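Q: Could you fold this chain for me?
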Amino acid sequence: MSVRELVVLGTASQVPTRHRNHNGYLLRWDGQGLLFDPGEGTQRQMLRAGVAAHDLNRICVTHFHGDHSLGLAGVIQRINLDRVPHPVTAHYPASGQHFFDRLRYSTAYRETVRLVERPVATDGELERSAAYALEAHRLSHPVEAYGYRLVEPDTRRMLPELLAERGIAGPDVGRLQREGELNGVTLDEVSEMRRGQRFAFVMDTRLCDGVHVLADGADMLVIESTFLDEDVQLATDHGHLTAGQAAAVAVRAGVRHLVLTHFSQRYSDPGEFERQAREAGFTGELTVARDLMRVPVPKRR
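A: Sure. Below is the predicted structure, expressed as structure tokens.
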């Protein structure tokens, strides 16, 4: 059975707290596992969340600040210790290759798994498979940073009532799908296009074009909201977003489920993030992320 969900491993920003680990997010997408921004402590959080190294197919790092990447060393070594039976692909800003190399080879261990390095140097599509296309777009932060976007291909949905009206059933349905026409009935007459799902992951950034491109039409948008709106100048100065800014992006983009995360340790009431997001006009499904929670991706339209 296919599963599409976000497993939240950590939600703190620069400084972890008693209740928030550094960043870490696993997207389960059917049989694939995409790990985003493994901060310090990610390996232990994976254990607590029931996530195994075997679940990982891709690692996507937005930028090389420690709260988004210091967990790479442990995760990579765990992948090798557990002898994961498939290659694992790593995406990260190409300008940070020296950081990736240091983390990958920070201590001695035996490499048993093929780790495929696919650094990101420009906006656009990184990988494409039958299941999804993975894109990256540049963000605005003091160091080079990219957000990621997963786009499922559109598919065609057959409409049983229209098939029945035209007397098409059994093997003839498959034949119509393959050939596009059967006994004068076209595929368009008895089916409709079904939009593929979209998932976006936006971490440390000011408002910029990349944020809007990534969020556009997302079924789920995971986005940083480090600051509350009253600290908007701090957010801008340090290359971050506020809760209201993140929600306004989601409104403009038509996001279905907004997940706010990456919270500054200066705030003690997570309810304020939800309140400000609602005040900004977001009326869809809204989650203020907590460590170890699981958030289902919205069902297809």
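A (continued): The chain has ten helices and 18 strands.
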